[in-house]
Specification:
Order of helices and strands: HHHHEHEHEHEHEH
Helix content: 55-70%
Shape: globular
Radius of gyration: 19 Å
Number of strands: 5
Strand content: 5-15%
Strand order of the largest sheet: 2-1-3-4-5
Mean pLDDT: 91
């Protein structure tokens, strides 16, 4: 502790500092997160390591408590803002160090659904993990998804829904891709509180992601598999 009772982040060792950053993210303390990012960089941490171990891991914890009803939307937004502030420092450094651009994702909430917290967290963490993310926002009809796929040629299409009534619209989008003969061009990931793996399989998605951290892992794994298939083809 410093004289004024504030924690001196510099005095912590790396492990303690990362732990403290998880707590600060959880509490939505933007300035402290920014300070922590800068300290780790000064200590020679690679930007990608700061991102994954301090920020992404911290947000994973936030995501779990949000899912379990311990944290609510306002707190999650504060945490997301704190992460954004840390990301603002890391983004140019990640670009410079050639942190691998793993792939590209188009993401949006389906028609009839205006919930976007989960989607925003997925988008932010995907970006943090080295993906280029095109966020279509909320209430997207099938045409909007198709236009975005045509324009951006992503590897991944992500769809989210928080209402049981809007879940079936995901199948409408996937069926449209099939009709156009382009379903196999994309990895389709779906997510949202009422969904489960059975539903994802039934509508023909590639995977259900129960939270933002799982979405990142699943996307990484599927992109890697796709590259390997292409390499051996």
């Amino acid at each position: 502790m410093s004289d004024d009772g504030e924690l001196d982040l510099n005095a912590l060792n790396d492990e303690e500092l990362v732990q403290q950053m998880h707590d600060d993210l959880y509490d939505g303390l933007k300035d402290e997160v920014v300070e922590g990012v800068n300290i780790l960089l000064e200590r020679g941490w690679a930007p990608y390591r700061v991102l994954t171990e301090a920020l992404v891991e911290g947000m994973r914890i936030v995501g779990i408590d949000f899912r379990d009803g311990i944290l609510f939307v306002p707190e999650v937004l504060l945490a997301a803002n704190a992460m954004k502030a840390g990301m603002a420092i890391l983004r140019p450094l990640l670009a410079e160090t050639g942190a691998p651009k793993i792939g590209k994702m188009v993401i949006g909430t389906v028609k009839g659904d205006i919930h976007d917290i989960g989607k925003n967290l997925v988008g932010m963490m995907m970006e943090g993990a080295g993906f280029e993310v095109i966020d279509l926002g909320i209430n997207n009809p099938v045409e909007k998804y198709l236009e975005a796929l045509e324009e951006h040629k992503p590897d991944i299409l992500g769809m989210s829904a928080l209402l049981t009534t809007t879940m079936p619209y995901m199948k409408v989008v996937i069926d449209a891709l099939k009709e156009k003969g382009i379903r196999d061009d994309y990895i389709v990931l779906v997510g949202g509180a009422p969904l489960n793996e059975e539903f994802a399989t039934a509508i023909g998605a590639d995977a259900y992601c129960r939270d933002a951290a799982v979405a990142v892992e699943t996307a990484r794994e599927m992109i890697r598999r796709r590259h390997n298939q292409r390499a051996s083809a």
